Amino acid sequence: MSDNKIIKKVAILGAGVMGAQIAAQCINVGLPVVLFDLPSKSDDGKPVNKNAIAMKAIENLKKLKPAPLGLSSEANLITPANYEDDLGLLADCDLIIEAIAERLDWKHALYEKVAPHIPAHALFATNTSGLPIGELAKGFSGDLKKRFCGVHFFNPPRYMHLLELIPAADTDPAVLDALETFMTSTMGKGVVRAKDTPNFIGNRVGVFSILAVFAEAQKFGLGFDEVDAITGSKLGRAKSATFRTSDVVGLDTMAHVIKTMENALQGDSFSALFKTPEVVSQLIAKGALGQKTKAGFYRKDGKNVLVLDAATGEYKPSTATIEPLIERILKKPIAERLGLLRETDEPQAQFLWAIYRDIFHYCAIHLGEIAQSAREIDFAMRWGYGWNLGPFEDWQAAGLTQVANWIKEDIDAGKTLSKEPLPAWIFSGPVADKQAFHTPEGSWSASENKYIPRSTLPVYQKQVFRAPLLGDGSPDPKTAGTTVFENTDFRAWVDANQPEVLIASFRSKMNTFSPDVLSGLQKAVEIAEANYAGLVIWQPTSLQLGTPGGPFSAGANLEAAMPMVMKGGPAGVEPFVKEFQDTMMKIKYSQVPVVSAVSGIALGGGCELVLQSARRVAAIESYIGLVEVGVGLLPAGGGLKEAAIRAAQGVALAGNTNYLDFTKASFENAAMAKVSSSAQEAMKMAYLQKGDIIVANVYELLAQAQNQVKAMRYSGYRPPIPTLIPVGGRSVAATVMGQVVNMRDGGFISEHDAHIAKKIIEIITGGDVDAGTLVSEEWLLKLERQAFVDLIGHPKSMERIMGILQTGKPVRN
Questions:
Q1: In this structure, is residue 809 part of a structural domain?
Q2: How confident is the model at residue 139 (pLDDT cuts 50, 70, 90)?
Q3: Average pLDDT estimate for 155-174
């Protein structure tokens, strides 16, 4: 097999929830995909479309939440097919993924049907959460066996970063390399290679962790909501914690995974734990399967969320609290935290120590069996379960031998879930000598008794920063490279591998704009113009722990702006607004290209920065929008100016003078604070432009942006020439305001919403001028500034601002 296997087209066998969503992710990354299912049969003898099952699944993609597709309209790009008539469509597919229900017999029956139609060049994979890949491979020809392996997408496939890749005994290593490359770069996943053991790595460790929480919570008498209060973000894990996560996954799904473990792991020393908890069985019997049935451990009652009372089986209002002492302990570094929890004779403390101990104990015993190294387990828990640090990282940070001795004491005292001792390599040898599971030379492999380095596949050269592991010596994106200059909220720096590109990164909370950020950006542009090929604006927070994809920028720092208003009245903020506008114009007209590398939220001023960059490289999960109306304000950093420019461009392309059609969409985006649900939708909303790059894997974002800067500069980049802009004028504004008034009178928006909307449309249409009047960018910026100052002095706008600052919740007035 070629080292450069190109996958141009994919087939998915099985149009269930998982198969359809994998097909959707293929569309998100621009891959043609065929979605197969059983042929539909007529019940009454009337003609029927044999592709009806696949077609219904495709239609359902438009309704699912969270949305599997970047643009729901692109569901129509998926080709529906059936196994009876359409197997010939497999001939030009390069990757075929089977994703039917988790039954060995059903999968084998399907393989018999499709195997003769799988082309000799295609890779074949089964998507399964834990069935044995070796068993599934039985019956294949020798050649197909080499091209077959397991993959495990975590649900929902668009949003979950983890993908497990599992070989069978005969899988060609080149197939695994090709799939790891494809899944990493094209599909945007964090790939973990797992051994062919029950439930692989993520669910083996993750479900054990959940079952351990069940057992320890029962032992220490803690309620479900109490457990969730102390096992979520307080521990650096997913906000949904344990029982909310179970509700989201589905209690029936969880029971199925537990049953797999119960049947397959009877020799495991923790096997007594692998039984569906009685409370889960009772809920399933009642049809309370979690979020999908609106009841599980939690039930929504109007605006209130009720929690199950294990003693009565009834739902009650949540009264969970964290003991003040526990709150204080959880704020300590983990090296101090674990000792304090273990020593504190209080149920919440003893429970927390127990669940840390249990996961460390389990992972140490099973490391050699389920994973090549500790790295795979830690990444699986971070990318699949939303933990900031994996179990081995936590253990290493807490003090390897000290924690091991505590676990040994608890084993000897009969406090643990298994009597099996920790493996000898914990106490003697390289791990004990280095006090580390992860080192710069690699991560510990219990099966090979050595440290294993990371993969050297060429695909990882696209990542300036690979996902770090505590202790492995990975460079910190916040401090890596050579600093050119910095201030409190801003850093300009250079990556040693691309020294001709200057990089700007923010350090402010949520990467908001402060005076330091604005002055930093201006200086960075000047330095880039003098000494570099261009400037990339990239945030290290895009590589946040857990699931990557942190914020690009949440916009202006309102909290920092308020003292300006308090001191100088509404006009006191005008110099800051002018400085913001000047900074954006400096970026737009820079003599070298400025490229924004966007992931996560780019809101308000963050969106305005994106709009005025020379080019944008955006992760699929980019949520871009002008949201200022939520705090009673409007975009004043050039966002409405750019809306007017895009409307004028639309008119010019259409070759007519219908300003209304092209103004309306931009107006609605700003006046209704619409935020794109993906980079694809941002493109549709004109926040991204033709020629911008959409990236599937956020770890490739920086390198792609650097490459764009160099390509633009070395192909003769010149900044745009300032031109006058034809605007819609008062007539278009009046037409739009007629619709706004109808919404206000109908009770759909408030009087203040209408007041802000009037100012927005007047700016986009150029003010009190005739349709087609030519205005300058400076004119539009002046209108933005004036309207912003007027609004920040309005009592109702101030109510909205203070509501957000004080409670974090929007005020509707």
A1: no
A2: confident
A3: 96
Structure tokens at 698: 């956020």
Q: Does residue 544 have a pLDDT over 90? A: no
- What is the rounded CA–CA span in Å between residue 538 and residue 536? 6
Neighbour-count burial for 717-754, b at 16+ CB within 10 Å, e otherwise:
beeeeeeebbbbbbebbebbbeebeeebeeeebeebbb
What are the two backbone dihedrals, phi and then psi, of residue 491, each rounded to the nearest 5 degrees?
A: -140, 130
List all residues 6 or more positions away from 89 whose beta carbon is below 8 Å from its beta carbon.
11, 34, 79, 81
Rg (CA), the chain: 28
Tell me what the mean pLDDT of segment 143-170 comes to. 96
pLDDT value of position 4: 66
The DSSP result for 670-733, as a single string, is: HHTT-B-SSHHHHHHTTSS-TT-EEES-GGGHHHHHHHHHHHHHHTT--PPPP--EE--HHHHH
**Burial class of residue 690 in the structure, from the number of CB atoms within 10 Å of its CB (0-12 exposed, 13-18 middle, 19+ buried):** exposed
Q: Is 673 left (phi over 0), alpha (psi -120 to 50) or beta?
A: left
Flag whether 240 is in a domain.
yes
Instruction: Tell me how far apart the alpha carbons of residues 271 and 123 are, in angstroms, rounded to a whole number.
Output: 36
Are 139 and 286 within one domain?
no
Residue 10 near residue 31 (C-beta atoms within 8 A): yes
Under a CB-based contact definition with an 8 Å cutoff, are residues 140 and 213 in contact?
Answer: no
Name the β-bridge partners of 13.
36, 98
* 373 three-class SS: coil
Show contacts of 257-263: CB within 8 Å, 24+ apart.
Answer: 257/129, 257/130, 257/199, 257/203, 257/207, 258/207, 258/211, 260/130, 260/131, 260/198, 260/199, 261/130, 261/198, 261/199, 261/204, 261/207, 261/208
Q: How far apart are CA 295 and CA 292, in angstroms?
A: 8
* pLDDT one-digit tens code per residue, 737-763: 999 999 999 999 999 999 999 999 999
Distance CA 693, CA 688 (A): 9
pLDDT of 438 reads 98
743 and 618 share one domain? yes
Average pLDDT over residues 42-60: 88
Q: Which amino acid is at 739?
A: Q
Six token digits for residue 320 = 């969970």
Report pTM: 0.95
Q: Please tell me the least confidently modeled range out of 206-220, 240-254, 327-341.
A: 240-254
682 and 768 fall within a common domain: yes
> Which structural domain, as residue segments, surrounds residue 211?
202-452
Number of helices (H), then strands (E), in the chain: 30, 23
Residue 784 maps to a domain: yes
Assess contact for 510 and 551: CB atoms under 8 A: yes
Q: Which residues contact 64 (CB under 8 A, 6 or more apart)?
A: 17, 21
CATH of the domain at 176: 3.40.50.720
Residue 573 identity (one-letter amino acid): V
**Number of domains the chain contains:** 3
> How far apart are the C-alpha atoms of 663 and 681, rounded to whole Å?
18
- What is the C-alpha separation between 705 and 617, in angstroms, rounded? 6
Same domain, 319 and 172: no
User: Domain boundary at 173, 193, 213, which?
Assistant: 193
Q: Which residues pair with 504 in a beta bridge?
A: 492, 537
